[in-house]
Amino acid sequence: MLSRRAFAGAIIGTACITAKSAWADVYPSRSIRVISPYPPGSASDSTGRVVLDQVSQLLGQPIVVEPQPGAGGVVGFATVARAAPDGYTLVTSSTSMANGKVLHSHLPYDPLRDFVPVAMFGTQPNVLVASKQSGFKTVADLVAAAKAKPGTLTFASAGIGSTSHMAGERFRLATKIDVRHIPFRENGLAEVMAGRIDYYFIPLAAAVSALGNGKLTVLAVSTPKRAALLPNVPTVAEAGYPGAESNFWVGLSAPAKTPMSVVNKLHDATEKALQVPAVKEHLAKLGVEPELMSVEQFAAFFKKDYASTLKLAKDAHIQPAD
């Protein structure tokens, strides 16, 4: 027979499990806040809003996307790292999530320890664009010009440690060219179109509206296969530089210790959202290819991507700003 203490413990344990299960069953019971760490209209912000609008409908609760740009995404990610792990404060995560470690030696959070990856939204290529005034028609033209006049050509980025910077450095190392990096506060695309900067790697979603203005030449995409939106544009591997390949990905993350029942509910709703024809069509217009991954696969993917980013920063001798 159970002792009174053991019996009471069993009853309390059962009650706790029942309470947790009931809480998970009713989640979400109110609106969910999703922090967007980058400005409205950025690749991660645009992609996130398309998917989260459908996730909101599936969960039956409003999802409010709240922009909190600043310090290369650090401001927004720090907000979520400090939030209660209850599923009501989430973050639009992306390739840039790992870049905070490149920007700052002392982050107010740990990208691996303080977040749990919930669901992948999709991936898209970084697009290598050059100024029309440069006269470059191919990647070979750009590389030849850079090698003919070392230290002369310039490439733009959205700031040190940004996705555009890291893609540019990966390209520089793969091609073994000597070029100058010119960081901008947010977006250097206007400088490329004006001919003041020679080239730029930019996520396709952020470049879509500018590609048809006649001021840019699209030289390559960074993904292993060609982009559906740009079927005639070669990949960097086809141009002879497989080492320059890089993906820009966007997903959803939550604070560490968020109950797995909540994580799984958000994950399942996201996967259903990604299979809705209207969502797929909208993402396709942004150049985003949906990626279905389990929670465990997404966590492993992020861990590998994070390690790759840190290695690239070391190889390119990128020093944190503080």
Folded structure, characterized:
Helix 6 (163-175) links the parallel strand 5 (154-157) and strand 6. The chain contains eleven helices and ten strands. Residues 14-23 have low confidence and may be disordered. The longest helix has 23 residues, at 4-26. Helices cover 40% and strands 20% of the residues. The protein is globular and about 65 Å long. Strands 1, 2, 3, 4, 5, 6, 7, 8, 9 and 10 form a ten-stranded mixed β-sheet that branches. It has two domains: 30-123 and 248-315, 3-Layer(aba) Sandwich (D-Maltodextrin-Binding Protein, domain 2); 125-244, D-Maltodextrin-Binding Protein, domain 2. It has helices spanning 4-26, 43-59, 74-82, 100-103, 139-148, 163-175, 189-193, 204-207, 260-274, 277-285, 295-315; strands at 32-36, 63-67, 89-94, 115-131, 154-157, 180-183, 199-203, 216-221, 247-255, 289-290. With 322 residues, the chain is of the alpha/beta class.
List keywords for this structure.
single chain, 322 residues, alpha/beta, D-Maltodextrin-Binding Protein, domain 2, 2 domains, ten-stranded mixed sheet, 11 helices, 10 strands
Number of domain modules: 2
Biggest sheet layout: 10 strands, mixed
Strand content: 15-25%
Tell the overall outline: globular
Strand count: 10
CATH class of the largest domain: Alpha Beta
Classified in CATH, the superfamily of the largest domain is Bordetella uptake gene, domain 1
